[in-house]
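Dear all,

This email documents one entry for the complex benchmark we are building for the journal club exercise. For each entry we list the sequence lines for every component of the assembly. Then comes the predicted three-dimensional structure of the complex as a token string, followed by one or two observations. Please use this as the template for your own entries, and keep the labels exactly as they appear.
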Amino acid sequence: MTLTVFELRRMLRNPLIWAAAVLAIALEGVRAAQWWPDLTVVTLRAVTASTLVAGAVLVAANLAAGRDRRFPETLAALPGRAPSRTRAVLLAAPVVGALAAAVVIVPLVLYGHLRGPAAGSLDVWEALNGVALAALAATVGAALARWTPWPFTPLLVIFAFLALIFVNGLGEYGGWALPWIPLHDPTLGPRPSALHLLYLLLLAVAIGAVALLRHGLRLVPAAVAAVATAIAVPAIAQADYLPKPPPVACRQLDGLSFCPRAGYEPWVGRWAAALRPITSAVPPEALADMPALRQDTFGGLPQVWLTGVTEMSVAGRVATGVAGLEGGPACGKAQTVVALWLTGLVSGLEESAPADWTRPPDPIEKGPGWHEYPLTDSGRSSVSPGRLPGVVYDGADLVNARALLADPGAAVKVRANWAVLTDPATTTEQAAPLLGIAPIGGAKACGEAE
Amino acid sequence: MNGALVVPLGRAIDWAPLAVAAPLAVAGAWLVPAEFGVAVVRAAGAVLASAAAFALVDGMAAATAATPVPRWVRQWARTLMASLVAGAAWALAWRLAGVPGVLAGEAVVALLLALAGAGWAVRHVEGRAVALAGAVPVLACGAGTWATPGQGWWLAAGPLVLVVAVAHRDARPVRPSRP
């Protein structure tokens, strides 16, 4: 017991663990600030961030349990023997690990909650998964110190875990038997977080017992390891996503119809606010034919919202619909310029923005003007300012739209001449006097790279 | 540097971490589907860097202080030998995965971070386990910047070489103290 208290105090002062906790909070806090808070995702991200602490705890527990092998001469004189030292680390390290993980997870979840209006729901079992992961890491560290007295093995375990997170983020291989699935596809339904928590705790107990088994085949640790494994394996084998919540009704706001997924109702006001530059610039009848914006893959509204990037995609979708563009080549039409101008009201039309036919950037280096656009927690696409889905326009249209954007009185002119400007037969040349711009024409045929 | 230095140091270095990490990195790059090539090569850079850091541990540091070869020469010789092995393994993994060369800067920085961390740690603490300090800056940087590979990493390489050089400098003044 004295030894346990000693290990506990020693580990509570471990700078590695607390440095990892500070780093995890700082990195995830800065990252989270760019996203609209979705408590489901916030909790998952906080737990993923806390695995940095779990890694530090794994190394700390490994060093603590292996201490008597590194400095055998100084410990030989002590009354306690190796099994009691292992037991002390096994009791102390998981407690400190769980505490440090909680120190990371609680403020990150609170931050998401307080930034409101937060979508999704807070799953306490999910948050406790992070606490259990740190405790599990502690027992793994101790077991590794006893079975593989070699300081590189904890690093290998940490890197293997990282590889699982990055390559297998949705748990494609291994499913719920993995220690952690960092990404979540909300279309699959809520995660079996309580069952997974039980699994992690049983795994921690089993691995702790395995660490003690290094000191000889004793009945108690062997029985504990066997029972914990016997419960954990069948339990996790039948884990599956929980039933999905029923869909919720669409809501009308600012003349647009928003259809959120269950739990995302708090975002309807934010969506409408993000699109208000468009809805307030166009006459009300223009919004009448606009199809409802649905929060699914092809419905216009993504599952997540990255400030500064998601606006581009959603604005392009709404502008295309409001201006009545059908898709296909639309170079030199007044309609196209108006639609581009509308997207510019929301997200600007930066100079590097490419016209639509430009190939999206390669996965490593984004091209100029392209932004990585998150569709879900895991799915990625690319977007550029002014992108009108399915519509082909050229650099000249972008230049004309920027000229319109520079005019503070543009909204009045567009509103007054809405019917003419959005007639598919009106060209930019014809509309130039109405818009008050000096238009330029495209150098090449529509859809051909310049 | 000649054979009289390289051979004994080559035998003194703890090659076991690199002997595990190098086949893992190469096998990973070879076996994993192409869509994960970038992730595997980046992870390989971090693993190999952390493994190379173990080469800096001099188990006989107390005794080798008396050798005619200064500490900084011995540490740089260890650094170069480990870097060559880690670099060769990374290059092979990169080749097998068939991913863009832009990842090289990041891998070099990971290696330098690991060497700086471990180089600093072995100055102050004895024992094999202190080489774990090499992985700390690698993991800390990796946690913050995973999503942004690119050429910018090369900018960090110069200062990091200086940090490594500072860590490798002689442990005590060469000039004998006055009687």
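Observations: DSSP finds 18 helices and seven strands in chain A. The radius of gyration of chain A is 29 Å.
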